[in-house]
Amino acid sequence: MIDPLNINIPLAEAPTPTRPDSPALPKRKLLQPSPEHPDDYILEIDNSSLEKFTTCPRSAENYLIRSREAARSSSATQFGKLFHTCVELSLINGYNDTTKTKQRELIAEHFLYNPCPPEDYRTADQMVAILDAYYRLYPTEQFEIYHDENGHFVERPFKIELCTIPINDVLIYHPQQLVAGYEKGNAQTLHVRNIHVFWTGRIDLLLRQSNSLWVLDHKTTSMGGDTYYNDFVLSQQTVGYTWAAQHITGQPVNGLILNAVIARKPTKTGRAIEFDRRPYLYSAERCAEWEENTKHIVGDFVSNLARGYFPMHTKWCMGKYGTCPYWDNCTLPPHQRLSDLASDHYRDVTWSPIND
């Protein structure tokens, strides 16, 4: 067993929140040149990208092809990232006075550069309250953090080859638009022979408990309830992360432990902060089906890419998490949409789970 209160490891460096004077990250492009052949390309696909495509192909086009996203991340997303960062510190270094001080510094710095709206309850004080309650409930962890030749398996990025899709055609898109590092290229057309697809992501934690391996995933939410929890039974992300962990370790992985943090707006009668950890068993058969299913989803995405059209799926314009960030753009006449995407309503996509 690992007692996080007594681990004697030098304090790890924590990610620093983006400052106004931080150097600009490179714009994410859909394809990378492949060493296999001059006309072969690599497509790194992650869960967020696949979710956009399965929800609405037009959303995936704006995000992956046009490389534009809403100019400001939601406060819920930023809040969740901050919790991940704080827990990562304690998992690696143990929860002690030094870690607690560093967490408080990160919280203050985060809200300095990412202020929340006045009516938002996801404040610095709320994060401090969540962490205090979290460590009262989990003062020590009854599991062992998995280690391999690359060190502790905490916030581990991965990139695993999934399949190769033959194209053998010229795409309608300019190479500069799609291919990373092509800014200075002279070619005006993009011939693609094959696309080599890699499944990518970032696993919060791989642990060993009772001689079994589990992926643990932190989730912050304001929801909870049966619908929320049942969503992870067939979750594309969490089954896919279990599949990835098996490939990385070469060992069976039981499934996922959901580490849920339920943070609601404080009220006089309700509980603003709750925690829940739930296991989800994913069989080898389930993971194999995930692999086959994901190959077909990516194949559908590449088919849209090859024909140069991503249709709107309007069922989820108003989804369970709110309005689609591209809704305003899609309501415009078609000839105005590209100029709107280029406006300051949107920003370049720079995030990738590989180099987060």
Could you explain the architecture of this structure?
The chain has 356 residues and is α+β, with helices and mostly antiparallel strands. The protein has one domain (31-330): Lambda Exonuclease, Chain A (Alpha-Beta Complex). The protein contains eleven helices and 14 strands. The strands form four sheets. Strands 1, 2, 4, 7, 8, 9, 10 and 11 form an eight-stranded mixed sheet that branches. It has a two-stranded antiparallel ribbon with strand order 3-14. Helix 3 packs antiparallel against helix 4 and helix 8 (236-249) crosses helix 9. The longest helix has 24 residues, at 284-307. The radius of gyration is 21 Å and the shape is globular.
What's the helical proportion of residues?
25-40%
CATH topology description: Lambda Exonuclease, Chain A
Overall number of structural domains: 1
Query: Please, what is the average pLDDT?
Result: 91
* Name of the CATH class: Alpha Beta
CATH 2nd-level architecture:
Alpha-Beta Complex
- Please report the number of helical segments: 11
